[in-house]
Write a structure and sequence with these properties.
With 247 residues, the chain is an alpha/beta fold. The chain folds into two domains: 60 residues, no CATH class; 176 residues, Rossmann fold (3-Layer(aba) Sandwich). It is built from eleven helices and eight strands. A six-stranded parallel beta sheet has the order 5-4-3-6-7-8, with helices on both faces. The longest helix has 20 residues. The radius of gyration is 20 Å and the shape is globular. Pfam families: Glycos_transf_1 (PF00534). Keywords: Glycosyltransferase, Transferase. One of its GO terms (molecular function) is glycosyltransferase activity.
C-alpha cells in the first residue's frame, strides 16, 4: 500500500481520523491526502411490495404488528452477520413480532454455508440474497431499524442510506461506525449483543427517541454526505490531473 501511495497523485480519506492514520503510517504522502466523506443518494423502487418481501423472508404475520430489523451486508467474516443472532433469537422468543432479516450477496462461499446453517436453525432470524438497489432502498424505508454488526468498517453505505431514508440505525461501536453515528443523537451504538437488545427494546418502546434519531440522522447526511459535494471533489481532482498533464 505504501508503494502504491507513493506512485499515486492523490489519495482520498473518508474521515479526518483515517487521514491521520494514513499520515502516521506514510508521512511522505501527507500532502496528497484529501478528505471527502462518502456521498449518499437513495432511490427506492416505487413498485416494491413490502408484504411480498416479508413473504419471501418466511415471515407470515401482519406487517402492522411487526418490527423488522434489517442487517445489510455481504456474507463475509468481517461483516460478522452472526454476531447478534443468538441474542436476537432469544428476544424473538419473548416477543414473536420482532425479526432480524439479513440481506446481502454471498461473497465468501464457505462462510455463506455457515451463515445459512446457523440462520436455518435460529428462530426470529431470516436470510435473503442480494437485491436490486432500488428494492433494497425500499426495504430499508419500510423496516423498523437498520443494523450494522461489522467488526470493521470504512464508512457504511447502508448506515448512510438508512439515515437518508429516515430509518433509525443501531450500529456496533467500532471506529468506522462511530465516525458517522453519534450515540443517542444520529443513532444508537452497541458494545455487545446484550447491549444491542436493550437498545433495540428501548427504541421500540420510545417513539420519541426514534423520531429524534431519524430527524438528526437525516439532517446529518444532508449536511455532511452530499453526493453533489463528493462529485465536485473528485471532478476537481481529475481536472487538476488533466491540467498537469497538459503542461
Amino acid at each position: 500500500m505504501g508503494r502504491v501511495l507513493g506512485e499515486a497523485r492523490f489519495a482520498v480519506a473518508f474521515t479526518e481520523s483515517m487521514k491521520e492514520t494514513a499520515q502516521t503510517q506514510w508521512p511522505h504522502a501527507r500532502d496528497k491526502i484529501y478528505i471527502q466523506s462518502q456521498g449518499v443518494m437513495t432511490v427506492p423502487n416505487a413498485a416494491f411490495n413490502w408484504n411480498t418481501f416479508l413473504h419471501r423472508s418466511g415471515i407470515n404475520q401482519s406487517a402492522d404488528n411487526l418490527h423488522i430489523f434489517l442487517l445489510v451486508c455481504g456474507l463475509r467474516q468481517v461483516k460478522d452477520p452472526l454476531y447478534l443472532v443468538d441474542a436476537f433469537s432469544e428476544w424473538h422468543r419473548e416477543e414473536p413480532n420482532v425479526y432480524m432479516v439479513i440481506v446481502g450477496p454471498e461473497v465468501d462461499p464457505v462462510f455463506t454455508r455457515e451463515v445459512k446453517a446457523k440462520v436455518k436453525r435460529t428462530a426470529g432470524v431470516r436470510l435473503l440474497g442480494e437485491m436490486p438497489q432500488g428494492d433494497l432502498h425500499a426495504a430499508l424505508r419500510n423496516c423498523f431499524a437498520v443494523v450494522n454488526s461489522s467488526m470493521s468498517e470504512g464508512m457504511s453505505a447502508a448506515i448512510l442510506e438508512a439515515m437518508d431514508l429516515e430509518v433509525p440505525v443501531l450500529a456496533r461501536n467500532i471506529p468506522g461506525n462511530a465516525a458517522v453515528v453519534k450515540h443517542e443523537v444520529t443513532g444508537l451504538l452497541f458494545s455487545d449483543p446484550q447491549d444491542f437488545v436493550q437498545l433495540a427494546k428501548r427504541l421500540v418502546r420510545e417513539p420519541a427517541l426514534e423520531k429524534e434519531l431519524v430527524a438528526n440522522g437525516r439532517e446529518y447526511v444532508r449536511r455532511y454526505h452530499s453526493w453533489q459535494a463528493e462529485r465536485d471533489t473528485y471532478q476537481n481532482l481529475v481536472r487538476t490531473l488533466e491540467g498537469s498533464t497538459g503542461e
